[in-house]
Amino acid sequence: MKLLTALASVNQGICTGRRTAQRLYEIESITKLKGRHKYYMELLDQRRHQLRGARGPLLLSNTPVLLPLQFQNKPMAIDNIICALFKRTFVPRYRDISSDIRVICMGELGCWIRLYPDMFLDNNYLKYIGWMLYDKDASVRMKCILALKALYEKRESAMKLGLFFYKFKKRILSMTQDRQPEITSECMQLLRLISEHYVGVFSAMEYVFLFQFVYAAYRPMATAAGELICKRLLAPPPHEGFFGQEPPDEFDRNLQNMKTLIDFYLQGEFHRHVPYLVDGLWEAAPALVRNWECMTALLLEPRGGRQDTIPRRRPPPLTLSPELRPRPHPSKTPVSPTSRFRHRSPAALRTCPEPTLDHRGLSEQHTTAEHSVSALTSQQERVLIEMLVAAVRQAAEGRPPAGRRLGKKAAREVDGTRRCREHANMSRHFVKVLPQLLSKFAADKEKVTPLLQIPQYCNLDVYDMDGLGSYLDAALLELDCLVQRHSDVAVLEACARAYGTYCDEGGSAHCQAAPACSRLVDMLVDVLTPLLDVFIQHEKQGLFLGHGEMGRICSTLRRLAAFYSAHDLSSWNLYEKMDSLLTFRRHQGSLPTEVVHCALQCTYYALLWQIVAATDRLPPQEALLDLRKRLMKFCLVCRVYLNHQSKVLSEKAFILLCDLLLILSHQGPEEDTGLGLLFFVPDHVLQCKLLTFVREHVFLEDTGAAGPSRVYKEEDADELHELFHRRNMLAVVCKLIVCNVLEMSAAADIYQFYLKHYHHFGDIIKETMTRTRQNDRLRNALSLLLCLQQLFQKHVDTYGLGYDPIEFICGPFYSIRLLARRFALTLGFDRARDAAHLIHRCVLGEGCSLTTPPPVPRPWRGLAFAFSESPVPEEEARQRFPNLSFLLVLAEFSCKIPPAERQAALAHFQDSIPEGVPVFGEGDMNPMLVYRKSLMRTDYVAQGEEEPAANPFDAICKDSKRPQELPVGTCSTWTPDSLASSSAGDREARNSSKGQKSKRDVFDVDFLSSEDSENSSNEDVDVEGISVHEGPAIGRFLESSAEGRMQGRYGPAACGRLSTCSLKAGELHPTRGGG
Question: Which stretches does the entry tag as region Disordered (predicted)?
Fold first, then answer.
């Protein structure tokens, strides 16, 4: 490969020298009349024809001269060597089994095309790159994309790739969804280059497909899509594309581009998160998304709009002249689709225009004409405000939004001095225009709420440095008006956070903002105090306040609760007022729900600020005891409101109680004095109440056909909001379990719904299992086993003992087995040996491990639960052991037991079987036999036994006929000896029936024994031992089994060899029945 690269470089050097000699000859021929020496002209002519490699006589100064043969055939000889090397090295190895060799081949081919385009820039060589775009290895696909990207970066080579892209266009478009994010970003850059070189190459729907990647999670991919959007949607710079009129100024062009971008977001149906669009254009269009003057000018523009003469969209791209259009290869017949690939060249800027795309990629004819720049609509203003706030946040923090991953080659950090200067300029601009923005959008809560986030991203020191104190007074005045005007919680909390930013003690705005905030709180408290006094007096006398007074109380409480979340209002002593309200509610029971809701919120924040004060400065012990009493009283109040008839109030009490328990659990109980007095652990009754609340309010039986697996649509906004609240409540209680505030055994009540509500809450429950396993693997295993025991007991209480074999493979009992199988998968492969020991302790009790496990309480033992006898004496043996079917559930964990310890586990199981255990069902429907076989799957070769099916229940499910039920009188009692003899009898019965042609079960397949496998060889394999029942049913079985697939692909001999190899290696048999 490197030799061919060197030859291509040599020949390319010859071609370059030939062009240089031709150019020098043309220059000297022009100047020969000025007395240039004739001998120098002859040398240039001779050199030019030598490099050209022409044959036949040449005319040098009107004299026929025949060049030597070595000069004539030099380029042709190198081309012949290159062709021979290409056919002997590249063609046989570009599809090599090794991906590294394929990568080398594609990389060198791209290098050859760049070095020697006269030969390799042809469809006969480009086809190899197109074919390898389908390679399964990501590095090979990446090399192909990089090779094409290097070709499309040059105009000369891009002109000759029209037919190639027409053939592989669909594949290149599909690679934007590749599994490797690096390939997707490079492919998007390639498509951007293609769109720049050719006009009309993509349809409208293809542009719609490409534009949506600006919302991709991979940031380089989003940036590449943003560059494509800038090229196809936004107006060009002033020096490009404006003919016959004066180009608009930069400000007007940015105004129009901003409107186009807003229309693109509104009319697109891809995403509803503006920060991702801003981040995608952050590097592609910095002059647009960081243009604060343009954004604020559009927002502050009056409703009537203004008239300007600017182009509506990007001026139309133009086509090439006919002599510059790419032509197909001479050996190929011209294809009509290649006429679409017309290169845009500066030499042809004055030819006829062609259609461009609108903001969604739709083809239209546009000419530059006067257009009225109208004012923004309400929806456009909302989107622009979101874009403005997202850009301000990213400029201040310097990181992309949450969920967007950076590439491996992340962009270098901007210089610190430059970033500080840009941040100062941004802050200086917004402290001037923020009062105007708040004043204009004060009536719209959806628009003013995000605008209130701007102060926390600005440098407020500019108020003192630049003498902008008057703007601070205007901003505080607007905040005061917003608090008095709105009663929405989102607006009030945003105002409180804005006041908190201005009142920062280290900031320059503290001196003016802190008194303003105090005056506002004083006003709210003065309004609330007389209203509460009058309200309580009226309630005691049996009278009622009017709706106006009650509304004022609710709105004032809502404002105080919002400010309490960001400011310490302990000096106003609001706790006493809220406590009197809650105490009155408990005794009288006549407060409105909204009043109680705000009172709970205010009391919770008051207690939090008292805890913060106690943490910063340790108060006396009497104050700590008083604070503990207040905390216990609030927990009691929330506990009472858990059963309130109002759903909103009960859920609020649950969230506040869980958060407070989580905060108090961080205080250590090791000291009797100090902060240890605040430590609080919920008792058993409170834990039961919390779990009961979760079962009743979180795991609901959703209405509809899909039930718990229902997929909500965007139109179901209310139901999605309700689902969000339910997920939040589940996450809160799971956090209590993970942080050991609640006992880990409480997680068993939540694990029961893992499969039933997997679609909505599966991620939260799975993360809880992972965290609890990291905290304590033993207790986590115990909680999993307790969950299965509770489900099994509930099943027995609901459906009875249920010894029908069909219930073991379907129905409610089978769902318990599926849950156990999923629990076994969650144990993972990390520290598998430790997990297996835990399964020994939980499932098999003591004595199974080589080391003595720690003592396990008897109610947790799996076998003890399965073999537990009924407390009521029963006459029938079945009812004496009601939990015997639980062995089918425990069998799902046998796969996690190490093979070296399964023999000990089997011995312990046989020793644990009590006398008189009943036996029902036969074969794979017997719980004890199924559990025993699950522990014997690695001992068949050593004992010469036949290996059972990998999953007998799956084999039964494949049979269309229902298994025959046993008569009532077939139940008997088993002992450990009878269990072993019964298993041996089954093996003898199967071995005695081997070779018979009588009617048998279609799933009974005999395998090669270990002796036959050892005596067989690779050349001559005896396959007579494989006897199957002839018929269509067994044919379908062999097609689905491993042996059937082997025989269908390799034949019987190869199948025997594979079986022999696996048996000698001591691994699992590859021809296991049932696949």
Answer: 305-356, 968-999, 1008-1027
